[in-house]
Amino acid sequence: MNFDFALILVLATLVTGLLWLLDLVAFQPRRQQRVEEAEIRAGGELPEQTRKELYQPSGWADLSRSMFPVLALVLILRSFLYEPFQIPSGSMLPTLKIGDYILVNKYHYGLRLPVLNTKILSIEEPARGDVVVFKYPEQPSINYIKRVVGLPGDVVTYKDKVVYINGEPQAQVLEAQLPPLNPERLLVNETLGGVEHEIYRDIGRPTLNAQWTVPAGHYFVMGDNRDNSNDSRYWGFVPEELLVGKAVAVWMHWSELLSLPDFSAVRSIK
Predict the structure, then answer these.
(1) In whole angstroms, what is the distance from residue 184 CA to residue 174 CA?
(2) CA distance linking residue 97 with residue 87, whole number of Å
(3) What is the pLDDT of residue 261?
């Protein structure tokens, strides 16, 4: 079962905020009145401890007052600024490893309302070579991360493991054969839209030769681990409204629960 954390966070923020407001408007004045009546009966000011006890809000009100600002801050940061994600698969190797924790810029492509995902402010459009997080079109409750290869209107051709954009081959330079003595894959430097990055190509793995025309409002994405990635070559295009944000940095690597987090892996994502 996939939990919609954004929905849970919005509901928790809304509930605690309403409870805090209810206490502020309806119950706090009653507590204040109770203190004043007790002071009249006592003929003067009550001891400080007694005042505190009479003015003390109920447990639910006190909890809501404490939790609402924290939840609201997390909601704002996560919805409009940056959101952390963990890399669960090797489809973006060698750029991103399993266990990398990344930061995704939520405002780079425009501001969207949480849960509804309605865009309220346009800022920039995705560029070729960007690494993006998006909702998987065939199951939007799951987030995917891939690299933008084709923009709206582009004709993308994949032939002999080389990307062609509108008939132009995208530069590839061989960097290494891995492992050196008995190579099974190639480490290749690829340039997409002026963005240099490394990709893996498996030796002897059959390739899918095909051509696609990217429709308006959609993007063609691929994983950097070209022969081990479930991407636009197999399930189609990413609608603009399913974009979550641009992956900008790795802030931690933590591959196993019993191991220590590795902060030496901090780096920008290219």
Answers:
(1) 14
(2) 7
(3) 92
**Catalytic member of 106, 146, 161, 246:** 146
Selecting among 91, 135, 161, 229, the annotated active-site residue is 91
Q: Structural domain boundaries of the chain?
A: 5-80, 87-268
Q: Which helix (H) or strand (E) holds 36?
A: helix 28-42
Helices and strands, number each (H, E), in the chain:
5, 17
Q: Where are the alpha helices (DSSP H) in 45-106?
A: 48-55, 59-76
Residues 229-270: tens digit of each pLDDT = 999 999 999 999 999 999 999 999 998 888 899 999 999 999
Q: Are 251 and 101 in contact (CB under 8 A)?
A: yes
Residue 48's SS3 state is: helix
pTM for the structure as a whole = 0.89
Q: Tokens 């990709």 correspond to what residue?
A: 199
**The CATH classification of domain 87-268, taken from the options 3.40.605.10, 3.40.50.300, 2.10.109.10, 3.30.70.100:** 2.10.109.10
For CA atoms 72, 74, 75, 79, the dihedral sign is: positive
pLDDT tens-digit series, residues 148-157: 999 999 999 9
Q: What is the pLDDT of residues 39-73, one digit of tens each?
A: 888 888 888 888 888 888 889 999 999 999 999 99
> In this predicted structure, what is the pLDDT of residue 1?
44
Q: Which amino acid is it at 45?
A: E
Q: Is the dihedral of CA 202, 203, 209, 214 positive or negative?
A: positive
Look up 146 and say whether it is catalytic.
Answer: yes
